[in-house]
Amino acid sequence: QKEVEQDPGPLSVPEGAIVSLNCTYSNSAFQYFMWYRQYSRKGPELLMYTYSSGNKEDGRFTAQVDKSSKYISLFIRDSQPSDSATYLCANQGGSEKLVFGKGTKLTVNP
Amino acid sequence: DADVTQTPRNRITKTGKRIMLECSQTKGHDRMYWYRQDPGLGLRLIYYSFDVKDINKGEISDGYSVSRQAQAKFSLSLESAIPNQTALYFCATEGTSVYNEQFFGPGTRLTVL
Q: Is the pLDDT of residue B2 over 80?
C-alpha cells in the first residue's frame, strides 16, 4: 500500500463553489501534514501545513487532519479561477523525507 | 532572481544520448532533491543529498546518477537516455523548519525520442 493516497481527479467546479480535496495515509509515524499547490508549468509551492489533528485556517483555505482515521483534507471556500492548479498532499514522519500524494488537478470555471 | 534554478528548461534528445540536468540554489540549504513527475504517477524521488558528502538513492534511481559539486549545485545525469525517461524533472531544496518545507525549481521538461 502506497503511503499516501490521493484521488487524481480531475475536479472541475464553478467559481464560488466550496472545494474539498482529500488524502489518506498509512504511516502512523507521520507528524506533519502539508498541502502544496502547483500551477501549470511551475514547481510545487507550500500552501499550508498542520502538525496535529484538527483544523487550520488561512484565508479561504482550511486544512483538516484526522489522525484517528488517517485522513487529511483541504477545503477552499469561494473558489476562484486563480485557484486552478494541481494540489498535492505531503506527509512527513520518521524517515524525515516528505512523501507526496499524486496530486489532484482542480479547475475553477468563471 | 529565483532561489532554485534549473537548466535547461526544455530538452529534446535521442535514445542513447548522455544528458545532464543542472540545479543551483541560493537559499543556503544543505538538503537537495531530484524528482520526476509523470501524469498519473505524481512526484517520484530519484536521488537526494543531505550535504556535499552525502548522496542517497530514492525510489527510482535506476538509469540515473547525480553529482553534488557544492552546497549550491546538484546535477542529475542520464548516462544513456531512453524514451521512458521522458518526464518533467524537478530539483528541490529543503529548509530547516521542523516540517521540512521543500522549495522547488521551475522544472525541466525532457523528451527522449
A: no
